[in-house]
């Protein structure tokens, strides 16, 4: 395995096939997109990238699936499914273009849809198929809920791990954003959270990962941390002013026809 040094989690290990995925153009594109857009204007340390975050999500997702797989109630999943889930965790943000979350009101595709298309296209699809033995459509369906799950039950389970109130995405970005902004509000006790997650194999509304009663405080902490991070960082008035100026420029460009929505996809911050 190849260790990638991460300031938040220490070493994140990738085998050769995952390293090829990391070096692919769609993932390297994320190295040129800041996780928090113009927030660095107020918090100068907030220059971390979406690639930085994506590696962290892979790291937490790997720890989470290991914990779930060791539980006797874990539903039967395939090796291909687990690998598809981990690749989906690494690739989940590849559809992001700059300021994606700030532009939800504009007539633009959701980043999950764009991610799904990137996963089933070259070069990502070729690496998944030839190097990792994964059906790209399976990894894409774990990220993009609009895609057909092909009737495969484990896809529904993996979807609920990757996107839930206590998912690897939130456990990374809250910790990471707090770390790089230099604020204490987003810090999560990740080891404790992972010790409190268990699988619920029963089909129905609660199918997927669950939480032991002792872990309820961890969920409460995450929800309150999100509130504090929005208040202090994400919705800081100067961040919102800078974002508002960008949105207005893009809106006017789209409205007068000097800019097409599709031209925004695939851009980096510069």
Overall description:
The protein is built from twelve helices and four strands; from the N terminus they run E-E-H-H-H-H-H-H-H-H-H-H-E-E-H-H. The chain has 270 residues and is mostly helical. Strands 1-2 form a two-stranded antiparallel sheet. Strands 3-4 form a two-stranded antiparallel sheet. A hairpin with a 3-residue loop joins strand 1 and strand 2 (10-14). Helix 4 (79-91) packs across helix 7 and helix 5 runs antiparallel to helix 7 (136-143). The longest helix is centred in the first third of the chain and has 20 residues, at 50-69. 36% of the residues are buried. The model has no long low-confidence stretch (mean pLDDT 93).
Distance between the termini: 33 Å
Mean pLDDT score: 93
Discrete helix count: 12
- % residues in beta strands: 5-15%
Structural class: mainly alpha
């Amino acid at each position: 395995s190849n260790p990638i040094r991460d300031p938040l989690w220490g070493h994140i290990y990738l085998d050769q096939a995952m390293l090829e995925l990391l070096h692919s153009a769609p993932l390297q594109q994320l190295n040129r997109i800041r996780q928090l857009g113009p927030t660095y204007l107020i918090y100068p340390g907030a220059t971390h990238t979406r690639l930085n975050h994506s590696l962290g999500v892979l790291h937490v997702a790997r720890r989470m699936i290991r914990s779930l797989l060791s539980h006797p109630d874990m539903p039967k999943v395939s090796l291909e499914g687990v690998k598809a889930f981990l690749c989906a965790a690494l690739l989940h943000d590849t559809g992001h273009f700059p300021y994606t979350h700030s532009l939800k009101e504009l007539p633009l595709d959701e980043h999950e849809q764009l991610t799904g298309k990137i996963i089933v296209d070259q070069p990502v699809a070729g690496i998944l198929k030839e190097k990792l033995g994964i059906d790209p459509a399976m990894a894409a369906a774990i990220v993009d809920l609009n895609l057909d799950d092909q009737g495969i039950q484990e896809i529904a389970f993996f979807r609920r791990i990757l996107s839930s109130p206590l998912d690897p995405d939130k456990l990374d970005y809250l910790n990471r954003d707090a770390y790089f902004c230099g604020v204490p509000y987003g810090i999560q006790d990740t080891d404790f959270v992972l010790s409190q997650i268990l699988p619920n194999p029963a089909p129905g509304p609660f199918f997927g990962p669950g939480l032991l009663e002792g872990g309820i405080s961890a969920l409460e902490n995450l929800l309150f941390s999100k509130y504090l991070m929005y208040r202090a960082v994400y919705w800081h008035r100067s961040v919102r002013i800078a974002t508002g100026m960008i949105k207005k420029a893009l809106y006017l460009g789209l409205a007068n026809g000097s800019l097409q929505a599709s031209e925004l996809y695939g851009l980096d911050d510069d």
